[in-house]
Write a structure and sequence with these properties.
There is one protein chain. With 205 residues, the protein is of the alpha/beta class. It contains seven helices and nine strands. The protein has a seven-stranded mixed sheet with strand order 4-3-2-5-6-9-7, with helices on both faces. Strands 1-8 form a two-stranded antiparallel ribbon.
Length: 205
């Protein structure tokens, strides 16, 4: 896994810039990454679809446990570098495309979805996951802390709203652990949280 100094050096050497438009914040906290991977408890029978893989901060350690990791990255220059870095890992398949265009119907069995979701596309990604929840067994999503609260909010509370209904209709929502802004490079302006979504066998209504 890349340290922050290695990440900066690699980006500088390759002449790559990170854009706010794509919400490119890379996880750099090695201890936090290890804690997340341990909690997710991936096994050799699991296929993982990773949203926004970046340079593989989560991809690499997940590949040590899961049977297959499908790493989806929209930035083609980052994607080319990711493919080069992951070439030694036969369990990783790198897909260069927008996750909103991902072909869920091609999956052979329900998968585990993992990703740090940029704020700008959080709602479209959640809508997409809800529409394709039959292809998904569970999801571990790192989202802004406020969004995580809204996803897990109980009826009648201040945070409860449209997003709560959208997600809870087809998923059981469990807030897992905080992810501080300091865990990312470049550092975002807000803290995040990892939320665990488990697909319901039947919608709540």
């Amino acid at each position: 896994m890349l340290t922050v100094s290695q990440l900066k050096s690699l980006l500088r050497t390759e002449g790559l810039g990170l854009t706010k438009r794509l919400g490119q914040h890379h996880l750099i906290d090695q201890r936090l990454i290890a804690q997340l991977i341990a909690r997710w408890a991936l096994g050799p029978k699991d296929t993982v679809v990773e949203i926004g893989s970046g340079l593989g901060a989560l991809t690499e350690p997940m590949a040590e446990r899961a049977g297959c990791v499908i790493a989806v990255e929209v930035d083609r220059r980052i994607c080319a570098l990711l493919r080069e870095r992951m070439s030694r890992l036969p369990r990783v398949a790198v897909v260069c495309e927008d996750i909103l265009q991902f072909r869920w119907e091609t999956l052979e069995s329900p998968v585990v979805v993992v990703g740090a979701i940029p704020y700008s596309i959080t709602s479209p990604v959640l809508v997409m996951l809800c529409e394709h929840r039959r292809a998904i067994r569970e999801a571990f999503l790192i989202v802004q802390h406020e969004v995580a609260q809204r996803m897990a909010a109980a009826p009648g509370t201040k945070a409860y709203g449209r997003l709560s209904v959208l997600v809870q209709y087809g998923w059981e929502v469990r807030q897992m652990m905080p992810v501080p802004r300091s865990a990312f490079f470049p550092q975002p302006t807000v803290d995040s949280a990892c939320v665990h979504l488990i697909t319901r066998a039947q919608p709540v209504v």
